[in-house]
Amino acid sequence: MFKMTNQYYRNVLVVVAMLFTFCVSCDDAAPRGSSLDNADGIVNGTPTNYESWTGVVALSSQDGSGMCTGTLIGPGVVQTAGHCVYNPSAGIDHASSPAGYRVSGGANVITNPIIIANADFIEVHPDWTGSSGVDLALVFFSDPAIEIEYYPLRPETPETGEMGHIVGYGLASSSDLYSSGIHREGDTTLLSVNETFIEIGNPSNGCMGDSGGPLFTLSNDQTWELAGVISHGTTQECLADSNGICVNLSAYLDWVNEILDENPDYAADEDTDTDTEVDAGENVDAGVKSSDSCAVVSIGHSVRTLQLLPTLL
């Protein structure tokens, strides 16, 4: 169980400073300059009490440091950001030593985490250098302690102006380092979309600790699909209305599917019901989603959750 101590939050501040330096120097990874992940949750978000979006989980070392968010895309695989698991300049290389990397859930993973499993192995996108490139990784685990839902991937690129939904354990404000660790959700707008990145904001956005988390959008048949992975912010503050940058997952589905095909025991059965369909007529623009929906958003390392986003969305 993670304990909130003065030393813990001093460590968070140190990591935030390290990540800020790191992010400012990333050119390829962050258009318009990048920001670090903050330590707590969705800006303008609402606590879920872990009664919805249970497949959006926290990722951290066993000592509770370096927290990020991730999204289950199969019963034993979490989609997250590359900088959450591999950033040598910050002393992070979970890909080489996955056993100490933990998947947790719960309404508050700082005070009362639900330990789901330790990682079996981690795959980082080959074009992620640790400071730039394709900011994606997959965390694989077996024998989870609880049953949790997982979500389908969006096969096509979303459009500018679409509404989405984000979920994460990051900071609620870049100035409040005590706000991390709470499972929050919020609606957001896809402000701009290109072949590799999606900018989000309004009314909610990500912050430090939300790195690696999901950006969900609705399919034509009203199913929540994972369209983006929160990577970084473009300012030093976590702004609710803009500047949250997600990796456009549709551009990299060939890589994701190749890795899943190589590890079928962890991936989803095509016939499995993942409970992501939204009932016809349900208001999906606001409010807490039911357990039938998918989550979205996560920002990088608060302790580690600060990595790629100077103000991690």
Read across the widest sheet, the strand sequence of neighbours is 8-7-2-3-4-10-9
- Integer-rounded radius of gyration: 16 Å
Number of E-type strands:
17
Order of helices and strands: HEEEEHEEEEEEEEEEEEHE
* Class computed from helices, strands and strand pairing: mainly beta
Low-confidence stretches: 1-40, 271-313
Second rung of CATH, namely the architecture: Beta Barrel
Can you describe what's shown?
With about 325 residues, this protein is mainly β. It has one domain (about 1-310): Trypsin-like serine proteases (Thrombin, subunit H, Beta Barrel), CATH 2.40.10.10. Helix content is about 10%, strand content about 30%. The protein has three helices and 17 strands. It has helices spanning about 5-25, 80-85, 255-260, and strands spanning about 45, 55-60, 70-75, 75-80, 85, 90-95, 100-105, 115-120, 120-125, 135-140, 165-170, 185-195, 195-200, 210-220, 225-235, 245-250, 295-300. Strands 8-7-2-3-4-10-9 form a seven-stranded antiparallel beta sheet. Strands 11-12-13-16-15-14 form a six-stranded antiparallel barrel. Strands 5-6 form a two-stranded antiparallel ribbon. β2 (about 55-60) and β3 form a beta hairpin. The longest helix is centred in the first third of the chain and has 19 residues, at about 5-25. It is globular and about 40 Å long. The protein starts with 5 loop residues before the first helix and ends in a 14-residue tail after the last strand. The model is unreliable at about 1-40 and about 270-313 (pLDDT under 50).
